[in-house]
Amino acid sequence: MTEPTVTEQHQTEPDPIRRRLVQGLGAGLALPALGVSPAIVAAPTARPWMTDGVQSGDVLADRAVIWSRCDRPARLVVEWDTTSGFGNARRMVSRPTDERLDYTARLDLRGLPSDQSIFYRAYFEDARDHARSEPWLGHLRTAPKRARDIRFVWGGDTCGQGWGINPDFGGMRIYEAMRQRRPDFFIQSGDAIYADGPIQAEVIAEDGRLWRNIVTEAKTKVAETLEEFRGNYRYNLLDHNLRQFNAEVPQIWQWDDHEVTNNWSPSKELDGRYQVKDIDLLARRGRQAFLEYAPMRLEGRDASGRVYRKIAYGPQLDVFVLDMRTYRGPNTHNLQHEQGPDTAFLGAEQLSWLKSELRHSRATWKVIAADMPIGLHVPDGTDEAGRARWEAIANGQDGPPRGRELEIADLLGFIRRYRVRNTLWLTADVHYCAAHHYHPNRAAFQEFDPFWEFVAGPLNAGSFGPNPLDATFGPQVVFQKAPPTANASPYAGYQFFGEVEIDSRSGALSVTLRDIDGIAVFSKTLEPQRA
After folding, report:
1. What CA–CA distance (Å, rounded) separates 50 from 136?
2. Which residue in 79, 177, 220, 235 is a FRET match for 271, CA 20 to 30 A apart?
3. What is the CB neighbour count within 10 angstroms for residue 74?
């Protein structure tokens, strides 16, 4: 018997008992765990529905973005307080949302106290008759202005390779494992959806077991229309683990290829599954859906939806969020001797921004959130001449920097030249976990200081790896854990997230790689270098 479709499964009113907010985080927040299917449209006289829960994102010392979605034209209302009793609640109201935004809405809460628990309740007011939806409850903690212990998690790759939401498995359980760690925030490292990855009702896993997915119309084919891209985000939000996680853990989003289609670049040729053959048009639609559903700040300098940005999290931490997709040149053999349009990966403007921000950062630790790894081979077939074509930075040759490696060599040389201390690279993309140490003594290019790169994921997708390493920047595998067979299901257990902890007294930073149950498989502590 196949799993019922989403329109059959999600029409029950959320249990009102679950709307109570429990004081303290030890037991977690008691939040509504059941959304409403996007296919269900309420009658004009009914109350509005909050269809996909709430999310917070891009939290600073005095600001935080709150996101939600309704089933009709409405305004998002957010009431917040520093206690769960809401005895002194302050209220903010969003601009109206409508079908042009897929009924998504966001508010940038301002004037928040630093280093403080913020409890919020969000609801929608109907634009026509001001009827109110039932509220959703959420929690976040603002960034500190003084040193304190910090913990955050990261990872990527959700609902890929046909492994979707399986109620028999408990849904996307790794999000609950991350929530249980009570992090200050989460870095979504890209591939939050698989727009090119249809979901079938039943899939046979590696050991012959049956994997049963919830299915929706939007996930029956590759996404081409804007509505199909939006449907991929709505699919993920059907998972109760993810909705609970979103309501309790602030997020920092970046994107990668599967928000549009696999390995896309300006040279991408779309296969026979696509009626749309224009990669630029497909990318514009994917980008619009991403910006509608990501809990990102879209005001001020970021009003254009620029993905790369800095999130300042107190005196100990700056997070530099990269965009390795928007500004890249075409995927090629990646062996060019000089920089130019075909070797762009970050692009000149983003690279200049990153150098400036790193040089002027006064934070102890400078975390570079990259959506792709530096030294791992990530192939993309062959070109017309039969040469290997590359999707990431490495080009499979261990000699001096060429192609996209030239841009990274420029950045690493700048970091050394201007004595930028305590950089740390965090990434996902390759669907296994690893710890890589880069050192000039092992490298063909030696004008850089040693640094670490940690890889996490997938969060709920097929597991692969490990990938070979390119020796140009002298990486060494200190640890890696990957499945014995490609595209291992979540049943196999090779799902991983990363965790970073910063000790306020010593300034030491510890990285732990954890599995689907939150069990540590590797840990490394780094001591800060002083200027």
Report:
1. 8
2. 235
3. 28
* CA–CA separation, 123 and 133 (whole Å): 6
Q: Going along 71-133, which residue ranges are E strands? A: 74-81, 90-97, 104-110, 117-126
Q: Give me the helix-helix angle, 173-180 and 240-248, nearest 10°.
A: 30
CA–centroid distance for 25 within its chain = 23
Task: Say what the pTM is.
Answer: 0.92
CB of 184 within 8 A of CB of 151? yes
User: Which two tokens mark 153?
Assistant: 């998690």
CB 93, CB 100: distance < 8 Å: no
- Tell me what the mean pLDDT of segment 261-271 comes to: 96
pLDDT of the residue at 304: 73
- Taking residue 90's Cβ as centre, other Cβ atoms within 10 Å add up to 14
Please state the φ and ψ torsions of residue 8, each to the nearest 5 degrees. -85, -20
Question: Are the CB atoms for 414 and 449 separated by under 8 Å?
Answer: no
**What are 205's two structure tokens?**
């896993």
Whether the Cβ atoms of residue 259 and residue 195 lie closer than 8 Å to each other: yes
Half-sphere exposure of 207 (CA within 13 A, CB side): 8
Query: pLDDT digits over 374-413, tens only?
Result: 999 999 999 989 999 999 999 999 999 999 999 999 999 9
> To which H or E segment does residue 356 belong?
helix 348-360
CB-count exposure of residue 312 (10 Å: 0-12, 13-18, 19+): middle
